[in-house]
Amino acid sequence: MNYDNIHTTCPYCGAGCRFHLQVLDQDIIGIFPDRSHPVSQGKLCIKGWNAHEFVTSKDRLTKPLIRRGGGFQEASWEEALRVIARRLKDYPPEAVGVLASAKCTNEENYLMQKFARVVLGTNNVDHCARLCHASTVVGLVKSFGSGAMTNSIPELEDSKCIFIIGSNTAEQHPLVAHYIIKAKEKGAVLIVADPRKITLARYADYHLPQRPGTDVALLNGLMNVILSEGLENKAFISERTENIDAFKEAVKKYTPEYVAGVTGVPKDSLIAAARAYARSSASSIVYSMGITQHTTGVDNVVSCANLAMLTGNIGKPGTGVNPLRGQNNVQGACDVGALPNVYPGYQSVADEKIRQKFEEGWKTKLSAKPGLTVVEMTNEAEKGNLKALYLMGENPMLSDPDIGHVRRGLAKLDFFVVQDIFMTETAELAHVVLPGVSYAEKDGTFTSTDRRVQLVNKAIDPIGESKPDWQIICELAKKMGSREFEFSSPSDVMDEMARLTPIYGGVSYERLRLGDLQWPCPSKDHPGTPILHKEKFTRGKGQFLPVEFQEPAELPDEDYPFILTTGRTIFHFHTGTMTRRVSTLNREVPTGYVEINADDARAIGVGDEDMVSVATRRGSIKIKAKITSRVHKGVVFIPFHFAECAANVLTNPVLDPVAKIPEFKACACRMERG
Amino acid sequence: MKEQVRLRCKELLSAKRVAAVWGLREKDGCAVPFLFQNPEEIDALTLSPKAPLSFTCRPSNETMLSVLQKKMPGKRIGVVARGCDERALIELAKGERIDLDLIEVIGFSCDQAQAEECVCSRPFPQNPVAGDKVKGIPEEKAFQGLLAMELKDRLKYWEAQLNKCIKCYGCRNACPMCYCKDCRMEQSVFTKIGWLPPEFPLFQFVRFYHMSDHCIECGECEKACPMDIPLRKITKYLRSRMEDLFDYHPGLDAKRKSPILTTVDEDPVKDLPDELR
Q1: What is the pLDDT of residues B203-246, one digit of tens each?
Q2: What is the pLDDT of residues A460-513, one digit of tens each?
Q3: Partner B, chain A 15-34, Cβ-Cβ below 8 Å
Q4: Would you say residue A528 has pLDDT above 90?
Q5: Is there a single domain that holds both residue A161 and residue A298?
Q6: What does the pLDDT average to over A216-224?
Q7: Which residues of A touch B71 (CB under 8 A)?
Q8: Interchain CB contact of A71 with B (< 8 Å)
Q9: pLDDT given at position A671
Q10: Which candidate, A29, A26, A33, A27, places its Cα nearest to that of A10?
Q11: Secondary structure of A121-186 in the HEC alphabet?
Q12: Which among B29, B58, B228 has CB closest to A182?
């Protein structure tokens, strides 16, 4: 008999909690939280406590599948890889695309982008970070020079004022909320700006329920108050920032009266919140997809950066601009270059010197042309310009906006490979399906939202004939004739990655075994960086960027009178491929629902639990009504986990012009009974 | 102290008086439970009063020791136990989850500082192999501040605390005594499923009630709570009421039935349904 505890990192949100998988004779029998972890401290949320259950689900893919005739046929690895290698060679580089995965390890994402760039010769590589925090990466780079959370999660406990905007932290990042509640209990002021009365709003000193999509107006309004009352940090502004004058000019018109009219937030709470944020000795901004998933996503992020700089709340403990990344390794997948415009470590593909470095490192001539983003790939597929797609661990058929459009795009692909652990809605459209493995069956690293690189350790052997994703990519690359994929372990991959990626320069498995490392960690003797922009900003001076408020792309009108906003619940994760296979989570929330305010429900004659049809200009779904005061009149909310009533049939695929993130958080809809 | 325990474990294993020892092992900077099967492995055994020895595994709802006893039928297992761990073993045996006759307790006492941190009334097992039995801390210390509050303020306090709950079920999962196949916390009779916060106060109180004659004051529920709800204030209060009313101490006497399962004349209730056994 063999019993062991395998220390590993949670596969759900970006908080980066760690636990031990309890393994008895190759069977994972339970989860034991890690008491000594700096973030999770022996605590977990309901998903974490059950994170082992889906691993051994009977639905796991266990053999490669090839589409023949109307259905799939099982195939050997040899055959499946041979087919893929042969087919992928048929297309010119600009006609192929690769989608990496925020659920897979850093090493796998690194290999996937390397595969796209080295083997396929294209920069058409992206992943679902495009759909969650593309605006963060773009916005914070513009303002500060680095597109990541500036501070660390545990610091929130000692923050004196926490301003949460567009993050349902208690449900989406419960172990981050742990520190927010602690701060509140120690006397911190809590400001929550969210159209919904989310869990943390109950603890807020000020709840600012803005109309969806009016965040820039709200943030400019706060800064207008700060400036007009002389509460800005003049010393910080003059020493550490630039472009304040143009910015001051821009926020002038955002008076509390004007902003109250635009956002629906009462003038007095706006003023009081602005004062509280500006006057505290350490104020922290926490945000998430509530502000990033808009056509003005970058503007929203930049406005948060403006607010922090205006009051000097950056570079110190308990302060900062803190985007909470939604997936276990969405931070890492970006860090290691699974993006169409940058190599690992956010090094631009358009920069000749950098390109040369990678050409030498990878011994291959590389393309200088930035590639396509997620939504652009679907668009180009529909137009017939993108012919082949290799996708790993993503489910755009549920996660991307306007699913009808996604289906038309993917269905038009000449050749489509999906590598996943389950037969997802997306895999069903593939020509070849490869069985990858879950976090419990492989080694690797995840990087959590506070830039914390942590080990993932193999607990059990791969299920059936499935293989670790890093091995699959290497085997395929070798089959296609590349010599640049000779890795014997994920640790080897990390070593190569560290050599080419300055922010990961000092990271190695040897060091990670002793504890996590927060990037930038440029050298082997560097201890890692819990707080960014301490003495100076990554870009030198912090840049104020004037931003004007713009309405969402689609506003309610007579035909579509309600604003639809979407999100997650605490009991499920993303497209439900993992959580809907966990009995405890399924019992809590077995299917989707639309949250409707009681007044609206009465107006359309709908009772609690009644079926309603929700329609937008993209499509319509039938879904159960949940009548609740969590949403205001005129606003409805649908979680996007559920294929049978998929919120993304409804959402608007219009993009932020710079970050290309879709507007998941606001579109117009109508509802009727039945 | 660690050396004394290691020595004892080695002796037991070498003499084949036990087939294995269940204790904590230092690994990756954490103290985590391990099944030691060879005397040579014992050098990695560690004592950590702050680390739990055994949670109830999910979704099987079985404690590790009952899993191990099923895997090793008829074999003796040594268990390195704090006072609370030993009390858990006794209660598990009373619930017929494990066979106490096949368990060899290798007990060690916690020190005074640890006892104070845990507000532990009995920071030692019955016959410790190592460590001196230090004075227990009266349980009232954990809740006397609350008793001084007016009832309506107390209600307000608990409403605020329990409304923080995000339904992780960590209190239950971490509890060595929460092994019911059919958990009351999951039933729609007591709380609306799939909604936060769970209805006050039934969601947590159905568990508190269930724990009143089981709680062995290990405090794992509170340590597992991601919202830092002071659960021990209630569990300790319930324990002290059990003591006052029935002179009953869970985990001390394997022979004594819970007074909650007895009639007024103290005869055990006959024909118990399975879930109450």
Answers
A1: 999 999 889 999 999 999 999 999 999 999 999 999 999 998 88
A2: 999 999 999 999 999 999 999 999 999 999 999 999 999 999 999 999 999 999
A3: 20, 22, 24-25, 29-34
A4: yes
A5: yes
A6: 98
A7: 1, 24-25
A8: no
A9: 96
A10: A33
A11: CCCCEECCHHHHCHHHHHHHHHHCCCCCCCCCHHHHHHCCEEEEECCCHHHHCHHHHHHHHHHHHC
A12: B228
Q: What pLDDT is recorded for position A243? A: 97
Q: What is the count of structural domains for chain A? A: 4
A interface test, pick of B22, B164, B171 with most A CB neighbours within 10 Å: B164
- Note if the pTM is more than 0.90: yes
Among A305, A324, A343, the domain-final residue is A324
Query: Å from A205 to nearest chain B CA?
Result: 15
Identify the domain boundary among A518, A533, A553. Answer: A518
What is the ipTM metric for this complex?
0.93
- Identify whether the C-beta of residue A114 lies closer than 8 Å to the C-beta of residue A132: no
Per-residue pLDDT tens over the stretch A147-156: 999 999 999 9
Contacts of B74 in chain A (CB under 8 A): none
pLDDT of residue A371: 97
In a domain? residue A298: yes
Chain B residue with the nearest C-alpha to that of A570: B166
| pLDDT cut 70: percent of chain A above it | 100
With contacts defined as CB-CB under 8 Å, which chain B residues touch A25? 71
The C-alpha atoms of residue A379 and residue A386 are separated, in whole angstroms, by 9
User: Would the pLDDT of B27 be above 90?
Assistant: no
Judge whether A144 lies within some domain.
Answer: no
Is the same domain home to A51 and A115?
A: no
**Structural contact between residues A286 and A504, judged by C-beta atoms closer than 8 angstroms:** no
